[in-house]
Write a structure and sequence with these properties.
heterodimer, A: mainly alpha, 74% helix, B: mainly alpha, 79% helix, globular
């Protein structure tokens, strides 16, 4: 007579003696000092920019010509710009725009790209061929040029920058997801689910998605810095967020003309941007090393 | 190898087709009616219908695409509304050489700085030299090129007055002035690239130095320097060439920014101005040229990679 095996009990017994994947990831991540420092810097910037409406000393848009071109002082910690606007307040609000655009565009790209990648990898055949050729097309542009092409069609503005960047990044998510789906599609547990009659979408949601999640999170982390850099770059070129919004790239562009008499107008927003990007890069690299140790070797 | 070359070429053709469909489709979606814009003050219903017919805009989308591709292949890219010059001349004759010139000096600068730094960092692994070098590399890697450019203009252009800060002088007009005008832009564009190459060089050399054949060479009594130069560096070249090639596209991104900061009339500046002026066919042509360059650079890198790395060649 066959023995009855209590599968859930066995599974929980196994996990009790094992380090959970999340704990392992945290151990690897926290052992990396650079990654921790990056995470702290990013968290700090996210916090102060989220709190900007409450902690910013001035309204970032209010112009005060009497106070134009003031050096950093106790009244204006980081000085004022050519319109007499407080630089510190504008940088706090500017970082807010950077993070909103970064998270929104990479987030949208992730959703679209992952759905495309899952469908292409799981269904194969014509679906795969069509979707992946679209991705090939998207990825054969360099990201800034692709974003510029989208902006040419969509026009300027915050929303359009988010959409353009989302379209730019979606292809990368699709390719990464598809590759991993192909690797695990023939695993016994996936085939077992299929044989038991589980439908495609359910197999994808229950068995494939959870197993391809970590490289997707890694991509998210790495692309955030690129998205923020591209956003500020577009705004610097005049193709992103239009004035008078307090965008970091725009502020750097606006200060260019006054670099000799008032270097702080370009200087401080640029410095803020560099610190954010360095922090995100360190964080993203740490995330990759913690979640995807194989990627480190290759 | 031949089979591979044929496959890769076919893949390139497919990519070119996809890109052309994409650029064509994108510009079809662009707001505004090009015919109205082109006619300007000459607008009346008859001239409108005539021009529409001449441009093939009354035909089906597939035919319009075919006409557009045919004209593109022939180099008939239209004229700029603003300057009145042929788009093909603006892109290929005026702008492209500036971008290539800038990219060339940036690449030279990056390689000259990065490879020795990477080698030194790898040989003095985990010393302060290594940490300082790699810290600097990560720093430059994270520095937005447009910001670095402004900082350089401020320090070396305005404060110290060593280099000109704006504009392009063709090497045909004056070699020395041309080079002087390139110093700050090439540094700006090359810095990001140098950071990347230095990191790759270091990590590849560290990997290679741990390989058994290096230990064997050392055991045989080959001197320290000779091991590095004869045995190790050759193998380090493979990943470096790959990254240099793959990231040339990234250089193009930097070029758009750098050209704007230093007012260089290159292809990046051209596409930016075209978008701002809503000159869609100029955007179309520039984006196509950049994408085609990107694809062919990748193709070349792929082939070169196989040539350098016999292991991949066999596979």
């Amino acid at each position: 007579m066959a023995r009855v095996v209590d599968v859930p009990a066995l599974a929980s017994e196994a996990t009790e003696h094992r380090i959970t994947p999340a704990r392992l990831m945290w151990l690897r991540f926290s052992a990396n000092r650079g990654a921790l420092a990056g995470a702290v810097v990013v968290a700090l910037f996210v916090a102060v920019s989220a709190l900007a409406p409450w902690i910013a000393p001035y309204d970032p848009l209010v112009q005060d010509y009497g106070a134009a071109f003031q050096r950093p002082s106790t009244a204006h910690w980081l000085g004022t710009d050519s319109f007499g606007r407080d630089m510190l307040s504008r940088i706090l609000y500017g970082a807010r725009i950077s993070f909103v655009v970064g998270f929104a565009s990479v987030g949208i790209a992730m959703v679209i790209g992952v759905v495309m990648g899952l469908a292409a990898g799981y269904y194969g055949g014509l679906v795969d061929a069509v979707l992946m050729r679209v991705v090939d097309g998207l990825l054969s542009f360099t990201p800034l040029v692709l974003a510029i092409a989208f902006i040419a069609v969509l026009g300027l503005g915050l929303q359009n920058v988010v959409l353009a960047l989302a379209a730019t990044f979606a292809g990368m998510f699709a390719r990464v997801t598809r590759g991993d789906v192909l690797n695990i599609k023939s695993e016994p547990y996936v085939e077992a689910a299929q044989l038991m009659g589980v439908r495609g979408p359910a197999v994808i949601a229950r068995h494939l998605l959870p197993n391809v999640l970590s490289p997707i999170i890694v991509q998210f982390g790495l692309n955030l810095a690129v998205a923020i850099l591209l956003e500020s770059g577009l705004s610097f070129l005049g193709l992103g967020v239009p004035p008078p919004e307090p965008d970091l790239g725009l502020m750097i562009a606006e200060g260019r003309g006054f670099i000799v008499m008032a270097p702080w107008i370009s200087g401080f927003p640029g410095l803020a941007l560099v610190v954010i990007i360095v922090g995100l890069n360190l964080f993203g690299d740490g995330l990759r090393d913690a979640l995807d140790p194989k990627a480190q070797i290759s | 190898m031949l089979q591979y070359a044929v496959n890769r070429l076919l893949h390139t053709v497919v990519l070119l087709f996809l890109i052309s469909v994409f650029v064509f489709g994108l510009m079809k979606l662009a707001p505004g009616d090009p015919v109205t814009v082109m006619l300007g003050a000459d607008y009346n219903p008859e001239s409108y219908a005539r021009l529409r017919h001449e441009l093939g805009l009354d035909r089906s989308v597939a035919v319009q695409y075919a006409i557009w591709v045919w004209r593109f292949v022939q180099g008939n890219w239209g004229t700029s509304y603003i300057s009145g010059a042929a788009v093909s001349k603006l892109v290929l004759h005026d702008a492209l050489p500036v971008t290539v010139y800038l990219s060339f000096w940036s690449l030279v600068f990056a390689l000259v700085i990065a490879i020795p730094s990477g080698v030194v960092a790898a040989l003095r692994r985990n010393t302060w030299v290594d940490y300082a070098g790699m810290g600097l590399a990560i720093f430059f890697n994270s520095f937005p090129s447009f910001y670095l450019g402004i900082v350089l203009i401020w320090v070396f252009g305005v404060s110290l007055g060593w280099f000109p800060t704006m504009g392009y002088v063709s090497p045909g007009a004056s070699v020395s002035s041309s080079l002087m005008h390139m110093v700050l832009p090439a540094f700006t564009l090359g810095a990001w690239y140098a950071g990347l190459i230095a990191r790759i060089t270091r990590s590849s050399l560290v990997d290679v130095l741990n390989q058994p054949y290096i230990k064997a060479a050392r055991a045989k009594g080959v001197e320290g320097r000779a091991v590095v130069y004869k045995h190790a560096l050759r193998n380090v070249l493979i990943p470096v060439v790959t990254i240099v090639g793959l990231q040339l596209g990234g250089m193009l991104r930097g070029a758009v920014m750098t050209e704007t900061v230093f007012a260089l009339p290159g292809i990046g500046r051209l596409v930016t101005i075209a978008v701002l002026n809503r000159e869609y066919h100029l955007v179309q042509a520039t984006v196509m040229v950049i994408a085609i360059m990107f694809i062919f650079i990748n193709l070349m890198v792929d082939v070169l990679y196989r040539f350098l790395n016999p292991r991949v060649r066999e596979a």
